[in-house]
Amino acid sequence: MKIAIVNDSPLAQMALRDALAGSDSMTVSWAASDGLEALEKCRSEKPDLVLMDIVMPRMGGVEATRRIMQECPCPILIVTSSVDSNVAEVFEAMGAGALDVVATPPLESGEAQSTLLAKIQAIATLYHSEPSPRAADTPRQPASPADAAVLIGSSAGGPAALAAILNSLSPDLPAAVVIVQHIDEKFSHDLAKWLSTNSRLPIGVASEGARLRTGQALIAPGGCHLIFGPDGGLHHTLQPASSYRPSVDVLFESAVRRGPRRLLGVLLTGMGRDGAEGLKKIKTAGHLTIAQDQATSAIFGMPRAAAEIGAAREILALPDIASRISEWSLFKNPHDHIRTIA
């Protein structure tokens, strides 16, 4: 796996090289001291993954991420020592297409280096993996207290897309919203706070056993899957161990088996295939499914995968998704909302 390092600190570059030296499958392709240099090098020698700092001279990590994803797209992981003081910039970079964020490991820090390597391996698995393993079918359990749930999956570019949708939904929405965004577990609560800035819906991280409430949005915590249990509540699990955690597929598939009576599945921007098979199961069960269109996706990977297998009943531009959710929420029968798409 060829990896590029973008950081203006020689010490940080050294620490990252030292961490990568611990893996036989990872090599440093090149290094850049700012975003502008990184953009130029990406054009001529695109790596498998870019480790991108946030605060740099000439061009910072946010703009560099935006330009790279526009001109020569490749996976980007934000690696910075200033996460806590630059939360807004971190999520802006993720909105521009960065996959995740992790702290820069200090030199000779075994634990921090292992965390970085695990994150890189998870990203590699996400982009080259088969669809998530599905659990064995079980009889459908009684519906959870909420009558309807909007299930949203997103990855690269997801925070900005989620903000656009949540900011347009009414607090009186007669459905609950459950979100899986690929993100490190350390930043799940920061994402919820950031999304809450302009949203009229209460947004929080789903705790173990959380119950669905209309007009409320819950985010899957990083580091584990979020599933509907036999009691209709939301539960944390580490299985299946081989898929990216949290997995969109795992949430979607569990909702079909044990979720509310009415479901709406939405798959937003992101690399890889996570969510496509789960979205198809929601469609097969007779519910509405939506994929974001290519023109408004930062990365048309996950939505494309869903479209290719016929999982999406409707493919919509990002500005149209919130209004479609609102329209769907007014129907009472699970199947009354379905349109005939040419």
Could you please describe the fold and organization of this structure?
This protein is an alpha/beta fold and 342 residues long. It has two domains: 127 residues, Response regulator (Rossmann fold, 3-Layer(aba) Sandwich); 182 residues, Methylesterase CheB, C-terminal domain (Rossmann fold, 3-Layer(aba) Sandwich), CATH 3.40.50. 34% of the residues lie in helices and 19% in strands. The strands form three sheets. A seven-stranded parallel sheet has the order 8-9-7-6-12-13-14, with helices on both faces. Strands 2-1-3-4-5 form a five-stranded parallel sheet, sandwiched between helices. A two-stranded antiparallel sheet has the order 10-11. Helix 3 links the parallel strand 3 and strand 4. Helix 4 crosses helix 6. It is elongated. It starts with a strand and ends in a 13-residue tail after the last helix. About 5% of the residues have low confidence.
Compile the SSE list and pairings.
Layout: E1 2-6, H1 10-20, E2 27-32, H2 35-44, E3 49-52, H3 61-71, E4 76-80, H4 87-95, E5 100-103, H5 110-128, E6 148-154, H6 158-166, E7 176-181, H7 188-196, E8 203-205, E9 217-219, E10 225-228, E11 234-237, H8 248-258, E12 262-267, H9 276-284, E13 288-292, H10 302-308, E14 314-316, H11 318-329
Parallel strand pairs: 1-2, 1-3, 3-4, 4-5, 6-7, 6-12, 7-9, 8-9, 12-13, 13-14
Antiparallel strand pairs: 10-11
